[in-house]
Amino acid sequence: MNLATTTEREPAWGRAQRLWRPDLPLVWLTIGLAAFGALVLQANVAAAFDRQLSATSLAAVVWALYVVPFVVVVVLLDLLEPEPPAYLGSAFAWGALVATPIALVANRSAQAVMTNVWGVEVTVRWAPAVVAPVTEEILKALGVVVVVLVARPQVTTVLDGIVYGAFVGLGFQVAENFVYTTDALTGGLFGAEPGHVVVDLFVLRGLELGLWSHVVYGALGGFGIAYLVVETGRSRIQRVVVCAASLLAAWGLHALWNAPFTRVPADASAWEALGVYVLKGLPALALVLVLAVLARHREVAWFAGALGEEDADVVSPGEQAMLRTRRSRRAALAEARGRGGTPARRAARRLQTLQVQLAVRRALDATPEEVALARTRVRAARQALDDVTAG
How far is 387 from 372, CA to CA, in rounded Å? Predict the structure, then answer.
């Protein structure tokens, strides 16, 4: 195989995975918003670091580790065409550094207006349901919109929208929970022991409330935005309606969660409170899970269709089946390692990656030249694997 062939420049749409695009004003605007947001967050948590350094540091570590299980779930869900870590990190950063701090400022301003117009009692009861869902869901949805505008070819299925929306929501959720924890530490809430404050808030906001919070709302909004962008075979009206319905559902479920008539009574026991959380949070979680599973099944279907006509020396029927699940992929990598050690495992992993890239190119109706180049790279990777295992 000629080296020039295997190192030929990547097709244009494949370069969309490049995150740093200084030619786009939107990139600089995002950086500016993130810098502003970081200053707002710093101002909100500085007092906690000054007064309760150990407990605040513990809270930072706890909420950082809170990210891990969500990332694992996304990795397992988004298997066929995994999103680049840099883009997922950027979506998370938007939620944490842009959406959360701007929402803090906007919510406080809106609550001040409500207080002047309707009084303190009405504001305390209704501001969480009226103000927060509007500002927060708009800001989170904008994070997915930014991903689409910066790297449109990266969003190829509705599952991609769910993933990016979930990561924006996760960033928002973690940052907001950390701010609430620092507020509690400086305000003397939940008792006098700072460590207990961190634990109590982690149990409450991380475990009892976390399964059906901003991650879910963000994923729901991301689904709608991706549907509008990628479902080009549908009518424009249908795409707009589905997108609007998804965004309204995220807003409505958020508003329902914060509504005064769904709040836990002050005299409720721990189990009664948990029951209320489940009753009002489970519908949102179930809706997103159903959408994600359906999107995953559809992704598997187009994956199979994209590779079904390929020759066996590119993707064999057995390899098509293997590529559909993480377990079978790992088994294939383990088998390669058993035949040729770490170099063989590395070569097998590259073959899998290039086969998936070929499927994506075919499913997205890339040009014949782009598909041919992807096919050539698969054959080169197979030859490299054969050379390693034969040696």
Answer: 23
